[in-house]
TrEMBL record:
PANTHER family, alphabetized: ATP-DEPENDENT RNA HELICASE DBP3
Keyword Transferase: no
Sequence ranges assigned to domain Helicase C-terminal in this UniProt record: 60-227
Transmembrane portions of the chain: none
Classification via InterPro entries: Helicase_C-like (IPR001650), P-loop_NTPase (IPR027417)
A molecular function GO annotation: ATP binding
Protein name: RNA helicase
UniProtKB keywords: ATP-binding, Helicase, Hydrolase, Nucleotide-binding, RNA-binding
Taxonomic path: Eukaryota, Viridiplantae, Streptophyta, Embryophyta, Tracheophyta
Classification via CDD domains: SF2_C_DEAD
Protein's UniProt keywords contain NAD: no
EC identifiers of the protein: 3.6.4.13
Enzyme class: hydrolase
Organism encoding this protein: Forsythia ovata
Length: 289
């Protein structure tokens, strides 16, 4: 991984506690296997504590996947927005977050929505911090109830009234999908996550199907067919297990019945189920932050 040398230098330069002292280090909700492996170089017999279910979608979010050709995405999005406006209170547009793949695509879709009568704004990596904050304020207050964004908005945003997330362009990785749809269904409210899927997204079919089944969502028959013939596993699209699972639990890192370090004193909570249906996994992290 290209960033490992930089991380190692940073950690080595940190002020370390005196011998025998105990230091607490807290990591974010996403702690993928590669980063855990890197952290293992500096931590020993650490406690992996997490809350929630690994890579799982809350049942407050209804997930829909629709087959849409690239050339039909804009008209399909317009249909969704018209339906949402018709079902909204006083004909108002509910807050909708639309994810696209590129910065250029975000600007283009924002402009297209605006000229077609749907007030929209956008945020992406080329926007200044001031521009992003202005866009978010405009979105939150409903002045521009449609926010078009790249993955810069997939993590860290806590906007409690987002009614729908639309994956106009699906991401390459299932972890990113989980983070995206987690922008709705927050603070006990229900939400809808709609994804536009076509042949370009075939590598994501299997992990997406697994995720939806685990969350008791209805999986379209055509998506199951895509999943059946897709290659799922160690590629950048599949994603593997979500980054809230202690990598020492994986068979490839264990030695017999012992943990990665040859010990058995890892703190797990028994009886919690993982995103892949295991009955004995640890309590694992929430995907929503």
């Amino acid at each position: 991984m290209g960033f490992e040398p930089q991380i190692r230098r940073i950690v080595q330069q940190m002020d370390m506690p005196p011998p025998g002292a105990r230091q607490t280090m807290l990591f974010s909700a996403t702690f993928p296997k590669e980063i855990q492996s890197l952290a293992a170089d500096f931590l020993s017999n650490y406690v992996f504590l997490a809350v929630g279910r690994v890579g799982s979608s809350t049942d407050l979010i209804v997930q829909r996947v629709e087959y849409v050709h690239e050339s039909d995405k804009r008209s399909h999005l317009m249909d969704l927005l018209h339906a949402q406006r018709a079902n909204g209170m006083d004909g108002k547009q509910a807050l909708t977050l639309v994810f696209v793949e590129t910065k250029k695509g975000a600007d283009s879709l924002e402009h297209w929505l605006f000229i077609n009568g749907f007030p929209a704004t956008s945020i992406h990596g080329d926007r200044t911090q001031q521009e992003r904050e202005h866009a978010l304020r405009s979105f939150k207050c409903g002045k521009t109830p449609i926010l078009v964004a790249t993955d810069v908005a997939a993590r860290g945003l806590d906007i409690p009234h987002v009614t729908q997330v639309v994956n106009f362009d699906l991401p390459n990785d299932i972890d990113d999908y989980v983070h995206r749809i987690g922008r709705t269904g927050r603070a006990g409210k229900t939400g809808l996550a709609t994804a536009f899927f076509n042949e370009n997204n075939a590598p994501l079919a299997r992990p997406l199907t697994d995720l939806m089944q685990e969350a008791n969502q209805e999986v379209p028959a055509w998506l199951s067919q895509f999943a059946a013939r897709s290659c799922y596993g160690k590629n950048r699209h599949g994603g593997g297990r979500y980054g809230g699972r202690d990598f020492r639990r994986d068979a490839s890192f264990s030695k017999g019945s012992m943990d990665y370090y040859g010990g058995s004193n890892i703190n797990y909570s028994h009886g919690a189920s993982s995103a892949y249906g295991e009955a004995r996994g640890p309590v694992v992290t929430s995907a929503w932050d």
